[in-house]
């Protein structure tokens, strides 16, 4: 089974809310909500992936010292196994915009379960609730 490394981030605003993004139509798991991020490219570190992906997907600038590792998810999908480190970030430049997603939502940690998420993202919710 192929191993896929994806980096994700929980952006946390001044009110303690977490940003989630809705997967666009035409992509696998379309319509579900996820933590922003993306595939780690060959030769790229997860932090570099997040800096690149957040610039491309949300039009914000994140500096590496602002990314703190929090936890990770390991999930077997039918055709690949996903390994996803989750970082937390409280500082960035710009206002997040839905460049590649259908929609963005700032959600209180206790309400994250109200949004349908991919199976790999769901186990990350309790860690965020406990932290925030």
Overview of the structural elements:
The protein has two helices and seven strands, in the order ββββαβββα. The chain has a single domain (2-131), classed as Nucleoside Triphosphate Pyrophosphohydrolase. It starts with a strand and ends with a helix. The radius of gyration is 14 Å and the shape is globular. The protein is of the alpha+beta class. 15% of the residues lie in helices and 33% in strands.
CATH class designation:
Alpha Beta
* Beta-strand proportion: 25-35%
Q: Poorly predicted ranges (pLDDT <50, ≥5 residues)? A: none
Taking the alpha carbons of the first and last residues, their distance comes to 35 Å
CATH architecture: Alpha-Beta Complex
> How many E strands?
7
In short:
The protein has 132 residues and is of the alpha+beta class. 15% of the residues lie in helices and 33% in strands.
Please give the structural blueprint:
Layout: E1 2-11, E2 18-22, E3 33-34, E4 37-39, H1 46-58, E5 68-76, E6 80-89, E7 104-107, H2 125-131
Parallel strand pairs: 1-6
Antiparallel strand pairs: 1-4, 2-3, 2-7, 5-6
Descriptors for this entry?
132 residues, globular, three-stranded antiparallel sheet, four-stranded mixed sheet, 33% strand, alpha+beta, single chain
